[in-house]
Automatic annotation (TrEMBL), chain A:
This is ATP-grasp domain-containing protein. It comes from the Bacteria. The lineage of its organism: Bacteria, Pseudomonadati, Bacteroidota, Cytophagia, Cytophagales. PROSITE patterns: ATP_GRASP. InterPro entries: ATP-grasp. Residues 131-309 form the ATP-grasp domain. GO terms for molecular function: ATP binding; metal ion binding. Keywords: ATP-binding, Nucleotide-binding. The keyword Transcription regulation does not apply.
From TrEMBL, chain B:
It comes from Aquiflexum gelatinilyticum. Pfam families: PqqD. InterPro entries: PQQD, PqqD-rel_X, PqqD_sf. This is HPr-rel-A system PqqD family peptide chaperone.
UniProtKB/TrEMBL annotation, chain C:
The keyword Ligase does not apply. Signal peptide: none annotated. It comes from the Bacteria. Its EC number is 5.1.1.1. One of its GO terms (molecular function) is alanine racemase activity. Residues 63-309 form the Orn/DAP/Arg decarboxylase 2 N-terminal domain. Residues 310-399 form the Orn/DAP/Arg decarboxylase 2 C-terminal domain. SUPFAM superfamilies: Alanine racemase C-terminal domain-like, PLP-binding barrel. This is Alanine racemase. The lineage of its organism: Bacteria, Pseudomonadati, Bacteroidota, Cytophagia, Cytophagales. CDD domains: PLPDE_III_MccE_like. InterPro entries: Ala_racemase/Decarboxylase_C, De-COase2_C, De-COase2_N, PLP-binding_barrel. Keywords: Isomerase, Pyridoxal phosphate. GO terms for biological process: lysine biosynthetic process via diaminopimelate.
Amino acid sequence: MEKIKLTIALSGLNNIDSPGPGIPVVRGLRDSKEIDARIIGLVYDNLEPGPYMHDLVDKSYKVPYPSDGVEPFLERIRYIHQVEKIDVLIPNFDSELFTFMKSEKILREMGIRTFLPTLQQFEERHKSNLPEYGKKYGVNVPFSAPITSVEDFRKMQDKFEFPVVVKGKFYDAYIAYDMDQVALYFNKIAAKWGLPIVIQEFVRGTEVNVIALGDGKGNTIGAVPMRKTYITDKGKAWGGITLEDPTMMDLTYKIISQTKWRGGMELELIRTTKNELYMIEINPRLPAWVYLAVAAGQNLPEALVKLAMDIQVAPFTKYDIGKMFIRYSFDLIVELNEFEKLSTKGEL
Amino acid sequence: MVKIKKNIAISDSGFVFDPGSGDSYSLNPSGLEIVQMIKLGKDFSAILEAVTEKYEVDSDSFERYYYDFIATLAQLHLTEPDGKD
Amino acid sequence: MTKLAFERPIIQRINAGLPSKYGMSHRLEPLSHIDGTPIKDLIGEFGSPLFVLSESTIRKTYKEAHRAFSSRYPNVQFAWSYKTNYLNAVCNVFHQEGAWAEVVSGFEYDKAIANGVPGELILFNGPDKSTEDLQKAIRNNSLIHIDHFDELYEIIHLSKEMTERPKVAIRVNMDTGIYPKWDRFGFNYENGEAWDALNRIMANKNLDLMGLHTHIGTYMMSVDAYRIAAGKLADLAIKLERKHGHVLKYIDMGGGFASKNTLRGAYYPGTDTAPSFDDFAEAITSVLMSSDIKPDHLPMLILETGRAMIDDAGYLVGTVIANKRLADGRRATILDAGVNLLFTAFWYEHDVRPVQPVSDQTEDTTLYGPLCMNIDVIRGNVMFPLLKKGDQYVIKRVGAYNNTQWMQFITLRPNVVMLDSKGNPHLIRKREVLETINSQEVMPEHLKQFKL
């Protein structure tokens, strides 16, 4: 079968100790037997490894941060599109999604396709809305509340027991054992990701995750459950293994069919000692461990691109159980002139 | 006279690399022009003359910008410590 | 030969690290004209700093808001929130567009009357209404929005002494799922206090119950809270009709709509996140239209939104006083307008632009005002082009609250001009002079003389 030639732009190329999903998504696309992809990297920082990984990323462009607003971002995409003729764009950072969803129509008119959750799906799964979400969809969630100052937490402290989890709007989560630590993490996260900060009840148990892809009509195109076998001090997976777990799969099907979820997602769950599943978070994109799903037989990046291109995708029905990944780091050797090019010209 | 450290690499794009610290910097076009003149051994009055000839700037303003700029270069340890102007 | 424009030389460290809030800087487009009039000329004629208000922006915004609501609901009335900007010229633009007046003090009430607003088209809100204020409002048939029981009893008392019947509404506070809850104003919905107050008004034969009022918060980014609030007021209206057969004339949903300014600490800019008038209108009107209120009894819907109506129309323009380098190497630029004039700098990350195209280069800069106070910061850590002493700047979206909350501290308040629809400037508030301040002071005889 002849492969379809597509130009795919994506972000999240910070393949470092706490990696973004960009490079694993590219690996999935490179494995595809149906898609012949030209990969365009969208990078925020001169030190993201992706632009220097020439076997995976064909060309990279620096882009302004989503916090600069939709307009400067679109201006840059227009320029890149003029040169590259982008077919599909895959944002891989949570913080970008709002900007991309806002621009979905404009991008579409330019001829750039995306496959993203709707603004409503995105908003209602926000960490600060989790309790309502749990109620609405009948899912166990830990008690949580958004705060805009440490004082806010002091006022509602009686509703919580230490330890609590202090979480950022987009990223970062720390376990705080006392008021001082809450204040410390509050300031640390607020400085980086803004407000509100979410305080969440700490649920004891084992963290398990599901990667999934919804077609926007209520169907689950693919889903693979996984347990992190070891977690780094940054809370990221060091290694993981695919599980056979019908209850996690049922929960995933339920959430995707009830919300008609569109696009990739990662469910973060805690299995308590009483064997109850608590939903901690829904990440509205494919996670960094997506390549484990690819290796287990579900090439979700490929499926996502096909959905974006309106190509029929049959749901995956199986995956390899007991497939493992071990994350490793690798020192990429970079010539200074490449760093110079990216940092002064914004392209590489 | 101000001297840029010998080992500092400056490219035509305004990219500056300090092999001593491993830090890199970028200069704006006027910054690059001035650094290149300093590298050629020009002193303040020569640079002032060249700049005011080419650009719309009075010597008082330029003098302020120049010394602020040199102070920044010194703060970043890009100039020879004994460099005086 | 013409010489080239000169740009300050700079060197910047190429930052390496993880993505953080501040990213690849984009060019900050200069803003040289307001409504076709060069800012440079305005400063030349009226001085620096200078507040500039755009009449056409006010009218355009008003029409946009009015269209959003009136295309969804049969009977819509706006009332201009005086506290947001009570410069008379601004008020009169709104009154010309058809807005009533919404006031929260005797001073504002008198201002509205002096502007020529008929008494019966003034909504009188707020917790502070003196006996004289209330008498005046009753005499003028103004709509008094009662804040607490003490006020209700005072009105009942006055109604016995006066011939006019007081026209009243109550302000209702409620849980709309937002934080912080504004429960210090009005009567609470959840604990039955509001219903209790309504029953007492109905039991009194001297008072005319005209409507219900709520004002759920300020700078609201979520339209859902309005949906909840409209639902709760509709419930009260239905209960009133069921129990007393009383049909309300209006429901006043207050204001609080967010403007496009970016709140400090927000990740995304306000231009991306602020809901539109259509979003607010859809939330409010869909609830009222689908409530159990009989279609021919649908009350007038009153909106008092201030900030979202005027913020975009205001500009503060001025001149750079000096540049400095802070101890840590960052750039500090000192502007001739500080937090005394731009009170909103305390909670917004204001959009500050250069007036003249100066440079594509930007540098991490803190913009300070001219006051001798450490808190006088207009913008902290902003990627800003390299302005020189004497260069001009413009701060966008300053129309709300600054002309009412500004302070006369160590300096005098500047001119305010309004650009008419053709872009011609009209002075609408004169700059203060020493006499403006001194004329209010009285010197005791024994302090008049001194020898040094």
